[in-house]
Amino acid sequence: MTQKGGAPFLHSLFMFVSMLSSLCDCHPHPAQSISSMATVRAVSNHTTKKASDIAAEVAGYADVAKQIIDLAVFGAAQNRSYRRLADFTDTIGNRVSGSQNLEMAIKYMYKAITQDGLDVHLEPVKIPHWVRGKESAEMIVPRPKSLAILGLGSSVGTPPEGIEAEVLVVKSFEELNRRASEAVGRIVVFNQPFVSYGETVAYRAFGASEAAKVGAVATLIRSITPFSINSPHTGWQDYKDGVKRIPTACITIEDAELMWRMAQRGQKIVVRLTMGAKTLPDADSFNTVVEIKGWQHPEQVVLLSGHLDSWDVGQGAMDDGGGAMISWEALSLIKDLGLRPRRTLRTVLWTAEEQGGVGAQQYYNLHKVNMSNFDLVMESDLGTFAPMALQFTGSDAARKVMEEVVKLLAPINMTKLETHGEGTDISPWMQSGVPGASLHVADSRYFWFHHSEGDTMMVQDPQDMNLCSALWAVVAYVVADLEDMLPR
User: Fold this and answer.
1) d(CA 62, CA 143)
2) Which residues pair with 187 in a beta bridge?
3) DSSP line for 424-455
4) Which of 183, 217, 335, 480 is the most exposed, having the fewest neighbouring CB atoms within 10 Å of its CB?
5) How far apart are CA 46 and CA 404, in angstroms?
6) Residue 242 in contact with residue 213, Cβ under 8 Å?
């Protein structure tokens, strides 16, 4: 079992804060009569309200929404989320699951949020601990050339002396299967075109196992990106049960295309691959939970979130430092204005999202017993560029409410509600029927930098983050303060 530096500190901190969390009430509110009704409110009174009544109730928050927007975009909090992100990523750097950097990041955020005057506690989880090690690749034939690579998460390593083998270049799984007899003993290079991330990522996720099925000794996969300046992109990959595990890494678009052209000419290609990757025992970690307790229904929750971990390249500023920071900033804005909604606002900074939402799944397993009290779950994990719309998944009745809520964002010209709220970390809740929301931002460049050395503060814009923070805070506060929960 791996012992990470600082773990005793975090365990002690967790125990201490857990004892205090129930005593903390950082946001005084005029005395209110606490409802004695049952906590199960999955079916809301919205279903019996007229559309005009709902519209009027939501419109009543116009002044509060403008206060939040003014503070975030023009006031004392202007550029604060950007500064927080810069301080955090410049101090900590990247934060891969299981690393000391991730542990340092959790300590950093706990301290910073505490100093901000918000109630914060830590919830322990177990997370994967994969280590990249030293890695290199070189084309030997038809000419010497260094290949830029990034090993993929969960990959096995090569023998210490590496693997030297002839290359088979293919453009699809179908081509690999047609040429299966040629793959035996070779390094398979996938040069699949980028269609969309959702479609093309299958080659990164399953390329190694598909190649191993036909006898390949390793795979090099064209990075899952539409644009490259000789920049490889990493990410998680999944071995299939019962299939030999072979080393796998991503290469640049340029090198994948180079080897494709050589192969088309009938040239023999030989590559030497060396990877020191290994998987260690699962590590201790924490989800970081921040709250403003509701004054009337503290057991009911509107959840905002982003993930604190990143890959072990770049700074993890875009993926997902920005999403984590606006989810903290939303609660800061509400606190700074002295607001306190009927229901609890809860920000969760997930751990180990990049390994498949590991921290979030354990959070769900722990809290799903209170499913009926989760009003809305929100996740920002596709960048914090200029916001274009709020994406929402929920019942038709809930959508009617959310259509009114986004009208409050008229001062920042962001009143569009789209379908398909999404997010790895909130998907278990949405699959169980809890309404979910995510940001649609101007993300055309997102996959240029995704999981690469290019994910740094240079990608971020302070004004864009102001707008994302304002949107996030207005939506969360208003939904949390409405008379009724969103109808399921």
Assistant:
1) 66
2) 167, 218
3) TTTHHHHHTT--EEEEEE--TTHHHHTTSTT-
4) 335
5) 13
6) no
Structure token digits, residue 105:
């990041």
Cβ(256)–Cβ(137) below 8 Å:
no
Strands 248-251 and 218-222: parallel
Q: Determine the Cα–Cα distance for residues 187 and 479; give it in Å rounded to an integer.
A: 53
Judge whether 138 counts as a catalytic residue.
no
pLDDT of 4 strictly over 70: no
CA pair distance 282, 352, nearest whole angstrom: 11
Q: Over the range 220-240, which residues count as b (16 or more CB within 10 Å of their CB) and which as e? A: bbbbbbbebeebbbbbbbebe
Least confident of 29-33, 135-139, 233-237, 278-282: 29-33
Q: Which pLDDT does position 36 carry in this prediction?
A: 32
Catalytic residue among 123, 135, 353, 379: 353
Q: What are phi and psi of 486, to 5 degrees?
A: -65, 135
Residue-wise pLDDT tens digits, 271-320: 999 999 999 999 999 999 999 999 999 999 999 999 999 999 999 999 99
Name residue 393's beta-bridge partners: 436
- The pLDDT confidence band at residue 49, using thresholds 50, 70 and 90, is confident
Helices and strands in the chain, H and E counts = 15, 16
Q: Are strands 374-379 and 343-350 parallel, antiparallel or unpaired?
A: unpaired
What is d(CA 224, CA 203) in angstroms, rounded to the nearest whole number? 8
- pLDDT of 228 > 60? The answer is yes
280: tokens are 């260690």
Q: What is the Cα–Cα distance from 188 to 135, expressed in whole angstroms?
A: 18
User: Which residues does 24 contact at the CB level (< 8 Å), separation at least 6?
Assistant: 119
Number of neighbours of residue 244 by Cβ within 10 angstroms: 15
- pLDDT band, residue 131 (cuts 50/70/90): very high
What are the CA-CA distances from residue 264 to residues 174, 187, 211, 252, 267 (Å)? 17, 17, 20, 18, 7
> Is it the case that residue 432 has pLDDT exceeding 90?
yes
- Among residues 353, 335, 342, 343, the alpha carbon closest in space to that of 288 is found at 353
